[in-house]
Amino acid sequence: MKKLLFFFILIHGLCFSQDLEESIYVAAETFIANPNSANFILLSQQEWKFKTLAKTKSDQLALVFLQSHKGHYLLNNSKLKEAISTFEDAITRFDKHKLSKISDFDIIETCLIPLGNLYTKTNDYTNAENTIKRYSYLAKTQGKTQHEISGAINLAKLYYAIDRHETAIKLASEFINHPKLSTSQKQKLTGIKTESQIALANTLPSNNTLVSAPLEQTYKAALKIRDFPKALDLFQQYKDEQLTTKELYQRDLAQLYIEEAQVYYLNTNNNKALEALQNALKILIPNGKFKNLPSESLLYPENKFIDIFDLYSEIETNPETALKSYDLSFYVSDLLKKNWTTQETKILNQYKYRTRSEKCIDLLSLEYKKTKDQTLLVKALEYSESTKVFTLKEMFQKKQRLEKHPKDSLLIKEFNLLKKQEQVTNKLVIEHLEQNRASEITKLSKELSNISLELKSLETLISDKYSSLNNLISLEAIQQKLKQNNATLIEYFYGKHTIYQFIISNSRIELKEIETKKAENQITEYISLFNSPSGINNNIISYATKAHKLYKLLNIDAVSSTPNVIIIPDGWLNFVPFETLLSAETKTTSFAKMPFVINTQNICYNSSTYFYTLKNTPKNNNEVLGFFPVFNNSDKTLTYSVNESESIKDEMDSELFLNNHATKTNFLKKVSDYGILHLSTHASSGNFIKPSNIDFYDETLYLNELYSLKLNTNLVVLSACETGIGELKKAEGAMSISRGFQYAGVKNLLFSLWQINDLSTSQIMQSFYKNYSKSKSAFFANHQSKVDYLENKNISNTKKSPYYWGAFVYYGDISEPSSNLVFLYTIIITFIVFIILFLRNKVNSPKWIKHFKSFF
Prior knowledge:
It is globular, with a radius of gyration of 32 Å. The chain is an alpha/beta fold. The protein contains 36 helices and 16 strands. Among the domains are: 393-465; 475-609, no CATH class; 616-817, Rossmann fold; 822-855. Helix content is 61%, strand content 9%. The longest helix has 29 residues, at 343-371.
């Protein structure tokens, strides 16, 4: 009883005394003196109490001190997720209470540097860049040179990791001769610069690298020149050096064994490689019980597991076990993915997902050839789909969830944060392009970091409330939709060695293989024909030969009997207009007589089977909102854009903004109110620095600002150049304006694949809206507008080149012409037949019958 009374008095005194600050420091320093698991549990319990009691700025600063040491303990014990949360909480506390004004506590050294490195280690690249840039600028303004140098090294490492080698070289070069650089720091920067130069030039390192550099660099250089025995010898020296001269933490020791396994594997010593991998697993799962591969329940978000399981799969000779190991990699990747809050980070990580998926499909394809087991093809399709436009699918599902639960405050807050994230990112893009002010960039980077923290906390609450998002579609669902559409679906998976082609009808699935090396030259050469009008017209016979060869190579003849074909392209195939391929050899130079695919089949595109099977709930409002800047009296004039506006006005209910009324402000104000959006303007695919963008009369709209919109438009028509072109990202496709509209929520789009001719575009658009006004089907209207163009006798043969009509591709729902229209046609035809029969039977005057027949 006395002990309980003493404990109560102690806690009571802690709660109300003036010495809370001192109590926090005592708790932290006690733990620092003896950092073990038991004391860590005690510290965490104390931290929870301190958080509820802290009132003053001094209390909060003491808590930051405690949390920084807790974070380092977690980091050193490979608890990366928990370490990240702890450092994030400490930094948020430091900023919220403006503790820099009352203390010179080094938040950079204690929290920001380790947090930036942790983001990099967990592949959270966007947050890593924002954090490192933040503390680099802070160090520069505070005159903390060593922290500034650390920032440069860590940022250069990050850029190298995400293949931004030119940026890594530039940054390393800026700091490599800094007067306060230590020898080890200079070696790190030199190593990053050399590795980036090798990666850019795709060349091998010089022999000098094997002599002058530290052991880590020399063994890696030996690997690059494929001197594997030499690399193994150097690695063993490096390993001995690490084990004898450094106190390695758990994660670093595991990494050493992973590297050992990689070197043994390259020396074809698989037994030693597997032994090293098992050593790494035992270090990362010290108390786990498993024989070869651990169960999912033993795993946690640690990317070292991914390295282990991927290499294990490479070594494993049993396909079933190899696939199991790859699936463990995917599982850990998904655990890491839960902490990524930006689509940029998710897209950057898709490359590894993609490589792993290809290897899984390779294994399944080989097994299918032996067994003819159709379930293997279904599994292969799932691997293909799992890496297709992941971020697009995720955003669509989040918006669908919000539509289903429109009053859920958590989902509303999540969407508003995602919207704000893209708006701030857009400001950051513009700042880099126009001003490049370090202070403003730092401010925006910090804002993005804060948004990320809020999204993470929300994700935990939302995942507790709702089931996980799942975008995989069953084969049965796909085939059911195909039966409804009288269609066949072709999905391509553009791999490093093989382009896999899934052909799915309403009753079966096939898998075909195309050698990537053999195909890529033909594909890119065909795409290049559309760079200018002369590419085709200068040698029409050559074009016809290439168009038919590509038709055969891509196995389109396998679906030649199907009237409707859905194409899910991939890689370079995103830029191939399949309608312009030729289904047979021809010697004619008359484009109107050529056997184009468009003449016999309707082509519709989609980004994945998920979007193909997505149920579309159209807006009742089918009016057109149109923007036509025209750009009169400038070098950007679009003379025939006015004709487009007139044709829309004649055929559709519309509100059209021309010339100086076609502003970005009006677009943002009106865009959510209409069923159809038409933009007739200039657009650009962007470059590695400048994102895709589209012009209004007064301003340019960049891709990230488009991402921030929430649209439920029935159809978007982008009558502008290169709206389907952008930086090509593995698995995600082109970072184009059209993708921006998809991300904003648009399901049906018509857009262009190259720089299009003003006059021919106007003619096609007039035909498109004439057909659309009757059919209410963009799928049908797009097809018919091209057929009409080819059959138009007033258009010269030169202008009937596919360059002029093939640019526009339709992504979206296959909808047949309006049922009302079909019903009307049926009534008219029935009425005519009835009248003729009636007159034949009831009217005796042959003149009446003759006159009536001639009328029809």
